[in-house]
Amino acid sequence: MSGNGQNVSTQKMRSFQKDTLKTRETLMEKQLDLQDELSVDVPDGKRIASLRKEITGLQNQLQAAGDKYGIADWGMNSGSGHRQMMNTGCGCGMCGW
Fold first, then answer.
1. What is the pTM (predicted TM-score) of this model?
2. Which of 34, 63, 89, 95 is the most buried (most CB within 10 A)?
3. Domain segments of the chain: what residues?
């Protein structure tokens, strides 16, 4: 079962996690980069826009992978509480990002 009340087999969840590990790691790095950029005295608007675009693309990749394994709400705007930092998250459902 995933964190949002849907029934997902352990095997499917393990396969999803294995197949998306690099994407989830990259997503977390981009989110931290965005957080860092937003916290500087004079943020670079172009870099912020670029990071947000990359984050959206990575979330879309995670949603597609979730769909492949029958795991709903794994990309953007899930109602399952995976996005804690700046309305985005790594999408793994395990770490609260």
1. 0.70
2. 89
3. 7-97
Neighbours of 42 (CB within 10 A): 5
* Rounded-to-integer distance, Cα 74 and Cα 93, Å: 8
Counting Cα atoms < 13 Å in the Cβ hemisphere of 65 gives 24
Q: What angle do CA 30, 36, 65 make, to 5 degrees?
A: 15
Residue 71: how many other CB atoms lie within 10 Å: 23
DSSP state of 79: S
Listing DSSP states for 25-78 in one string gives HHHHHHHHHHHHHHHSSS--HHHHHHHHHHHHHHHHHHHHHHHHTT--S-STT-
* Portion of the chain with pLDDT greater than 70, in percent: 68
Q: What are the pLDDT digits (tens) for 9-56?
A: 899 999 999 999 999 999 999 999 999 999 999 999 999 999 999 999
Instruction: Give residue 76's pLDDT.
Output: 52
Instruction: Pull the structure tokens for residue 46.
Output: 């172009």
